[in-house]
Amino acid sequence: MDVLYIVSIKTAEEIANEYKFFNIFEYLKQMRLNAPLQLAYFENKKNNNDLDLNVKKILQIWIGDNKALDIKYCADEAIKITHIIYIKKENNFLKHTVWLQKNIFDDQKNKHNINNNVTNNIGDNDNKTNFNNTINTTTNNNNNNENKQENTKFNEIINDEPPTFFSKILYELEDDDITDESFLVFNENLPELLSYLFEIINTSETNRVSILICDDTGVSTSPALLSVLLLLKYQIRISETIKSCEKLRSSCNICKSLRRGLEKIQKTLDEKKIKRLNNKLHDTTVLSTNF
Hints:
Helix 9 crosses helix 10, helix 9 (181-203) crosses helix 12 and helix 10 (221-234) packs parallel to helix 12 (256-283). The protein folds into two domains: 1-33, no CATH class; 37-283, Protein-Tyrosine Phosphatase, Chain A (Alpha-Beta Complex), CATH 3.90.190. The protein has helices spanning 12-18, 22-33, 71-74, 98-101, 104-111, 116-122, 125-137, 141-157, 181-203, 221-234, 238-248, 256-283; strands at residues 37-46, 56-64, 83-88, 164-169, 208-215. By secondary structure, it is α/β, with parallel strands linked by helices. The chain contains twelve helices and five strands.
């Protein structure tokens, strides 16, 4: 007897909604909205670095909280994170990030070169402290065995290179800040964070780049950083990105401090564009014809 296999490009959530299984649809929807990470930007275009014109370069940008750093999410077949940028408020060590901490220095020395202003930071106090915490945490036999199991699990799940991991501590960032303090700290560190992200997007030679931008809660900081990135790189308006993130992630709620600051960045960018346009018009020779 022949067996007919039906391959659907729709998600389980979409199928449940289409066939009016509304209880299942609502359950799947809530699972997606409250997951540790959500896909916030997707791009599929021709890879200019490949001679085969049919080869596409896929870019995925995810946002989320620190639970998304767990190997079961990063190495998932549908996600396969290749680069991680983690903004945290405390110099703490998360048990489920052991597999990342143990790979970070090998990645830096042997596999990845980025701009000097970013490179100098990746191996500095942030990650060195975390690495030392990792060493201290794994001194006894039980923890050593646990870390070996974690790395074994990683090797079994994913055969590609482990994701590059860049972390930054911003102590003053608050998810509910209504003052200017959080934005001032965010803006001060923005060039460094954007430099790392632009380097990944612009210079990656692989056909698939999957970036995870996360912070401890995934409420305010990671969607704010995504908003600036998409504004500068793809001219997507701040309000559009925020609206999209709030729809994708139920906990997303960019604080007033960062929201005001993001609007200022956009306004400054708009003013610069108008100024350049006026300068071009001023310098253009206008030819008039007399009839």
